[in-house]
Amino acid sequence: MKIGYFPGCSLESTAVEYDRSVRAVAAKVGVELIELPDWNCCGASSAHAVDPVLAVALPARDLMIAEAMGLDIAVPCAACFLRLMEAQKHLKEDPSLKKEIEETLGKKYKGTAKVYHPLTVFSQPAVKKKIKGAVVNKLKELKVVCYYGCYLVRPPETTHFDDPENPVVMDELMALTGAEVLDWAWKVDCCGAGHTLLRPEWVERLVGEIVEGARKAGAQGIVAACPLCQANLETRQKGKNMMPIFYFTELLGLAMGLKKEAEGWWKKHLISPRIIYNQAREPR
Amino acid sequence: MKKKDSDFMRRVAEEVPEVNRCYQCLTCTLGCPLVFAMDLKPHEILKYVQLGDKEKVLKASTCWICASCETCATRCPNEIPIVKLMDLLRQEAVAEGVVTEQGPKVNDAFLAAIRNLGRVHELSLIIDLKRRTGGLFKIDPDEIRLGIGMFRHGKLKLLPIKIKETKTIKNLFSRLEKQK
Predict the structure, then answer these.
(1) Rg of the Cα trace of chain B?
(2) Mean pLDDT per 10-residue segment, chain A (284 residues)
């Protein structure tokens, strides 16, 4: 299975361990990721706040690159994922906007490239079967909760991802690792997103509530699927016993025996995933 | 206010006609994660928009505190696209020059980065944003500790990546600016 890959800006820097673990897991289960050549930033939360045309035009260029290659696109950042999905929706529904953007970018838009989050790619029955077969290191003593945040599930009429109030796609994937996946009520709460730049105190408050919720559920760690969610949960967490925040691909990779690679991923974490270290070194 | 109130109401009617469906059930406000920081709550904004009180809604902090998390719009029983309304308020507030919050500076810094490089280089973005908000030389020990931690864990890429087709991106920005 071949699919275009749009890493997004965060995966080049603060979320480099997410990029590496997505690529490693994909390679392990036979999903060939082909990075879109010369991709540009999706515009994130700023483009749509400033100019509705820009908010569609920036992702449109990326969609056109994938189209030209005849590929669908896997987008690991939840914000990029939503921006690409949103652009696709507007290009489909608004012919005059589509025309304007085609003229500005000097390329035709056909709408043939489908956009997926890696959670969806790895949840395809055939891929899931491969993951199941590849698990060699069951994370038996690990208790986690899955955190989806906002942009995978909302707005549901754009993302078509899973149940917007109680998604389970990630929970089901994590169950394959052998970890105990707990239910909790903060799955789709907001982490405060970009406010981390200028109003960290707001983000600390939201993150505090989410982490407390995970703790009450009995979790030892939170699993995320978005670079900004992960960064906020990790960098804006306060207190003594801080909870490690994993990318779902890191736990998948570890369970599939990518221990050496995982050592490199853990080094990128500001909150040390000690519990995982034990599991990685001496699987019981 | 530079533009007529009727122009504002026309834009609302064109882009977010659903606003008139609001019957003040408060679902938006109850689910809003950032409501604690807002002067006007989301349901109040909707009411004032219905009443055409442009000055009140544009001067409110609400649209700059909104994180666009889409919880309100997803749960709204009348399917009002509240985040789309917030975007419209942000654009109108900037056009009227009545913004007191720092929100527009974040957007300016972000878009300037995309315009120059085609991608956002996180380290440069943070420095540019500190510069724009006058915080470049303010020493916040927590933030400095965090910055050092991120650097030590190799989470800050030092050099930016520039895409090849920056010309296309620049053209896009200047074309949109001309239209305004």
Answers:
(1) 19
(2) 97 97 98 98 95 97 98 98 98 97 96 98 97 96 97 97 98 98 98 94 98 97 98 95 96 97 95 75 44
Nearest to B93 by CA among B51, B60, B70: B60
B111 touches chain A (CB under 8 A): yes
Q: Per the CB < 8 Å rule, is A38 touching B163? A: yes
Interface residue B155 vs chain A (CB under 8 A): yes
- Break chain B into its structural domains and give their ranges: 5-96, 103-179
What residues in B contact A45, CB-CB < 8 Å?
A: 67-68
Contact list in B for residue A206 (CB cut-off 8 A) is 33-34
Listed in sequence order, the residues at least 6 apart from A252 whose beta carbon sits closer than 8 Å to its beta carbon are A21, A25, A122, A131, A173, A174, A176, A177
Nearest CB among A38, A49, A150 relative to B70 is that of A150
Domains of chain A: 2-118 (1.20.1050.140), 136-281 (3.40.50.11810)
The pair of three-digit structure tokens given for residue A160, joined into one six-digit string? 């078509």
ipTM of the modeled complex: 0.94
Measured over the CA atoms of residue A143, residue A262, residue A13 and residue B167, the dihedral's sign is negative
DSSP at B132: H
Question: Which residue type occupies A71?
Answer: L
Domain B5-96 class? mainly alpha
Contact A280, A139 (CB under 8 A): no
Residues in chain A with CB shorter than 8 Å from the CB of B123 are 13
Provide the 8-state DSSP code for B21: G
